[in-house]
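To whoever picks this up:

The parser on our side crashed when reading a file containing two proteins. I've narrowed it down to the boundary between the first structure block and the second sequence. Both blocks are reproduced below exactly, byte for byte. First block:
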Amino acid sequence: MAGRARKNISVLPEDISEKAPLTMDNSASTRIVLPPKWTVPFRFMDLPAEMRVSVYHMFLPHNCLVTFDCLTYWWPSGRPLPRKIEGFTTDGFDKTKWKVKVRKINASGDEKEGVLVWRGGTVLFLVNRFISNEARAVLYGTNTFKLDIDSLPHHPVSLSSPLVFGPLGLDHRLGLLRNLRSITLDVEVNTMDHWTVTRHRARLRHFVDVIKRHADDAQQASLLKTLRVRLNNDKSIHHEFYQPKKFMFALEELAALRGIEHVVITGVEEWFAQCLERCIKGDGGDVRELDWPLVEVKRKKDCYSKVKKAWVSTRKWDSPVLDWREFAISNGIQFPWPSAGIFWPGTT
């Protein structure tokens, strides 16, 4: 009598568990076939670059808005303490406390409320140099990084504060800034005095100097393509007392940037936003510096000192340094008259 046909059953390794071990009966009609063990290691680097990037997207956030919040300490009266730039521990770690948030963004570049995304895939940077460079392009190239520039005092360096760049502002991390393709600058007005404009100008100038340092390097050129700048007031300042035209000319420090394809300026008057956007893109030519006249004044250090004469500029703290009126007229941008309510040379 011919033997009965055997039935082969394939069993995957995940079907076998320690709690429910696999048993076989004495029936000759069933035979269990286990797949052979994988003995050859999988070569990830042999995959096409597009497939490797798809794998990186599974571990790293992409098309998101990355924000850095510096933990602020407060006086008992409710006023914020000067933001302190901490040093390093003996292990080389940065002691400044940062809170990193990663959120999905919409088409206009604004973050979606309540959608928090983070994947702990930064271990990819520790595999090898080649994978680290590819993963770095995904993390820094496909996300928008939001940098906050406030008008509060920083310690010990206030005007050229490295806190402008968040945790990337330290010397050993500044090289990562050249990989950023999209940056959002949130310029915040915290006080209604001349120190706000002074600190904004100095910190924006520091931002421009660092970005241009990489943009002018042929070997390590900057990859920045999109820049969004937003000027807004602190929540503690009532909107009825906030006048954007008193603080908007601090943004003219960004005019030193050139060749950025997509530029959006908000929170300022429309005519100035158009001028600054066109200037940063490299259109419309250069902006001429205003020639402010000098006046002679008498000053003395204290009541016991002698009176000394000095020449000072007639430019006010909220007045521009560059001639945006001439730039607007020459580029066909509608300029509000008379003088847009701004003190210009030759006006009173």
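<<boundary where parser fails>>
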Amino acid sequence: MPARAVAFSPDGRLLATGDSSGTGILWDVADPTHPARVATLNHDAAIEALAFRPHASLLATACGGAVTVWDVTEPARPVPIITLHHLYRRRRHALRAVAFSPDGRLLACGGGAGTTLWDLTDPAQPTRAADLRRRRWRSTVRAVGFSPDGRLLVTGHGQAGTRAAVLWDVSNPAQPTRAAAFQPQPARTFANHRPTVHAVAFVPDRRLLATASGAVVRTDHEFRVRPEERDSAVTLWDLTDPARPVRSVTLTQRSGSTLALSERRIGVRAGALTGHTAAVRALAVSADGRQLATGGDDSTVLLWDLTDPAHPRHTLTLRHVDAVHAVGFSPDGRLLASGSRYGDPGLWRTT
């Protein structure tokens, strides 16, 4: 059964998958060689995204214009606690991404009308904390993710309007558009991601952010950014100063087969790695920050060693029967789940 979204529980014993028919499945993966189906979560439309709440047995599923929060304390008997209805009233405003903050208090929901922050301090009585729907960022939000300390939120945009990764300061969830005083605008845009940004992930314990888009980023002799549609790009950003993100890794070959390492301010190429040959649709970073997984339309999942972020090393290629739209690491980093458009979900050992 194809999986559009995958997510591991905080203890690593459960894997949640969601497909285009609206079927969510909870799998017991305590024995990865024999995953057992323990429950089905039925929805009335495609499940676009899944996220487990850290340190709790709660699962959020995005379907159409709503998010359902499930209590999975007893995996065989999941209980829907609440459904956040009518986040977006129009069909084209369906949700595409969900993510919990590290402390589990906030839930970010991104879709056709922007991003909404929900306060789930009491999951049974959630409150809307803020809407990130400024006119400047009117475009479909394809990906959302919190920094390890929960102070930053990144949103990946695509289609009409803004096509970029945007960084928000959400240390005050009620006013997320008000960034630090040194920042003249409410958000920082990573301008080389003009094409659709499909996936985002922070690297734990480091000031690094990974973004994936459907375009290669090229530089000319003056090192200006020139995006190319129909290609792929995976970029690592140094966020030591969030107001001035520094690009350190980008794809540069038209074929998408080479990952070049460069520092934006000086444009010095440091090395090259084998990469995807089509748009990158998904990425995930292991909890220890040492592994990066990327999945794309070339029907492959690539694993990268991030021990030295300036020189990521390609370690493994995993092949699917079709385009890969979802990847996720188990908490200990030993397992990787992947989902493709038509093929069954994959469960892989990384060590």
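After patching the parser it read the second block fine. The two ends are 26 Å apart (CA to CA). The CA atoms of residues 50 and 61 lie 5 Å apart.
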